[in-house]
Structures are given as C-alpha cells and as structure tokens.
Specification:
The chain is an alpha+beta fold. The protein has one domain (10-107). The protein contains three helices and six strands, in the order βββββαβαα. The protein has helices at 60-66, 78-87, 92-105; strands at residues 12-18, 27-32, 38-41, 48-51, 54-57, 71-75. The strands form two sheets. A four-stranded antiparallel β-sheet has the order 5-1-2-6. Strands 3-4 form a two-stranded antiparallel ribbon. Strand 3 (38-41) and strand 4 (48-51) form a beta hairpin. The radius of gyration is 15 Å and the shape is globular. The chain starts with 11 loop residues before the first strand and ends in an 8-residue tail after the last helix. Residues 1-8 have low confidence and may be disordered.
Length: 113
C-alpha cells in the first residue's frame, strides 16, 4: 500500500546550473536517479557545491538507459540538451518549465545557448 513517503521514492532527475568561469562556458548538469538536491562538482581551482534549480521524474526511456544507476549528463548548449530530452521522451512542458527556470537563474551573457 502506498504511503505519504512514496513520492520521495520515485526516480528523480535534478538539474544544476554551473556558471561560466575562466573561459569555460556555462553548463547544465543533469543527474538521473539523483539522491540529493546538491552536488559537488570537481573543478581545477576548487570543488563547487551546486543546488538543484529544477526537478522531475524519470521517463521510462531514461530509466531503461541508466538501469537504476546515478548518471550525470553535462550540456553546454540548449540544443544538445533538448535533443537528448526529445530522444528520451521528456515532455515538452517539462522542457518549457526547465527553460523558464534557467532564464531566471542565468544572466544573459552566461546563459546556456
């Protein structure tokens, strides 16, 4: 029987924004089967802790592709992210909400384009 904790157990995809720095483009880090709203990203200078800015459940295609393992995907262009998400059955509405969340986060000059 489902309990009020069942929602917490659903496979989750979380999105993290890494701003541009030192000549490196801004990136969106997508973590499938994410277990936390924060990730630590190893950087050359020092590790950076990021907080998720968007979250959704996995699609069946994503679940099959990563077979229950936490999987990181890094994107530095919106087109690449959109193509990946279209291939994995992510709803258009989720992509629109993601794009809105990203627009609120990133200054125009740093935006993932």
């Amino acid at each position: 029987m489902p309990t009020h904790h069942s929602k917490l157990m659903l496979p989750c995809v979380r999105y993290f924004y890494l701003p541009a720095s030192n000549g490196r483009h801004a990136e969106i880090i997508v973590v499938l089967y994410s277990g936390s709203t924060r990730v630590q990203v190893p950087m050359r200078e020092e590790d950076v802790t990021l907080r998720a800015f968007f979250e959704r459940t996995l699609t069946p295609e994503e679940a099959q592709a990563c077979k229950g393992d936490q999987t990181w995907k890094v994107f530095d262009s919106w087109e690449e992210l959109q193509q990946d998400h279209n291939e994995h059955g992510v709803a258009h509405e989720a992509l629109e909400a993601l794009q809105d969340g990203l627009a609120r986060l990133s200054p125009i000059e740093e935006a993932v384009v």
